[in-house]
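Q: I have two molecules that I believe assemble together. Could you output structure tokens for the complex as a whole instead of separate predictions?
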Amino acid sequence: MVDRDESLPDLPADWIDALNRVDRPPAVVTRTVDRGLGDAAEAQFAERLARPAWRRPGGWAALAASLALVTVVAVRWDGGNESVYTDVDASGHIDIADVLALARTGTASPRELEAFAQRVVALNGDASR
Amino acid sequence: MARRRVDDPRSDHALIAACNDGSAREAARAFEVLYRRHKDYALRVALRFVPDTDTALDVLQETFLYLLRQFPPAGPGIELTAKLTTLLYPVAKNTALTALRRGNRFPAADVEPDELAEATEPVAAGDVGAVIAALPARQREVLLLRFVDGMSLAEISQVLDIPLGTVKSRLHVGIGRLKSSGAGDDLRD
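A: Yes, here they are, computed for all two components at once.
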């Protein structure tokens, strides 16, 4: 048990036996102590069942992943914002000129403009068929 | 906790991990195994500092309650970087000394580790046990940690929170006292 390769004084085995005898042998641990600790452990760990998910081990990672997912979805949804699909230049129809007009106003994000343009192109493509 | 016998092959590190991150059932089970595995050691440490079994059992309970409170949700968890006994020893020792200072069971107040040595029986010539018991507490403590608990010098330094050189010094002096006492001559011959 004792590592002998350290540079330190050693004791004869008989002396070590004597040391062990001096060290009083453990008394019998009562069932009351056993049960008390067991109940305390079960009570404490049972609280894990009632904790919200974000407070459980790994909860922060799960929360971060959820936030990342929400962000991605929100950004994509933002790109599909219906409010930008308007007849910006009041020409009577929605076309690529409205995209350019919207861009000049500076009120739309690049992602919104791109989505607007793609939709206009798609709609015009459908109309031309 | 005395409900069933536990013979779990997992290491202390694995059990600590289960207490940190396992489900309620896994954590309670892992804690039970840790308790069963180390309760005798904690009790033995307690008995080095307190004079009776009842107080030692209180110390044992407080020691493991302290350990329990380190685990979630009560605490942040335990990162075990050494043997669990190096964590248990200072907790059991400090709890025992606190119990003595509290004076609930004993009139002694402000007990320091060194004073405890003088409470032992007088030395009888040729009696190795008596010589060991009569050593100053700090020297005896290092000898017990080294030769009974089997700790390395680094581990003793860690559990006592003293420099490695101090550990070596106490060990040298303690062994020197044992050898110069003449006790144990009959053992060596």
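A: One point stands out. Residues 1-5 of chain A have pLDDT under 50 and may be disordered.
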